[in-house]
Amino acid sequence: MEDVLKELAVLLVISEIGAYFGRKGLLTEACTAQLNQIVVRIAFPALILASMDQAFTPELLRNSLGLAVISWFCFGAAIRTMPVWVWVLLRFQVR
Questions:
Q1: Which residues contact residue 7 at a Cβ distance below 8 angstroms, ignoring those fewer than 6 apart?
Q2: pLDDT digit string, tens, across residues 76-90
Q3: How crowded is residue 38: how many other Cβ atoms within 10 Å of its Cβ?
Q4: pTM check: above 0.90
Q5: How many CB atoms lie within 10 A of CB 39?
């Protein structure tokens, strides 16, 4: 939990720095676009990989399997009820 809070704090600091420079008008549109590309292509994937660095425990396996079963049932229910939703959407389509 402590690692997650540290990552959120880093994101908050980065956001505040960007907001400060944006308010002062120090960043042009081209510079902002480049910084957004850097964040999207480098920083976010790095944060995701860092957050996935967990020790493997039996509890983690049990929780992962439980989530997989729940998602399997939800996906199955969505597929089974899809004809009903398509009928409702087509029936009450705004003309």
A1: 47, 50, 51
A2: 999 999 988 888 888
A3: 11
A4: no
A5: 15
One-letter amino acid for residue 14 of the chain: I
Question: With 0-12 CB in 10 A as exposed, 13-18 as middle and 19+ as buried, what is 61?
Answer: exposed
Rounded distance, CA 80 to CA 82, Å? Answer: 6
φ, ψ for residue 93, nearest 5 deg: -65, 135
In this structure, what DSSP letter does residue 27 have?
A: S
Per residue in 33-52, pLDDT (tens digit) is 888 888 788 877 877 777 77
Q: List the one residue out of 36, 50, 41 whose CA is nearest residue 5.
A: 50
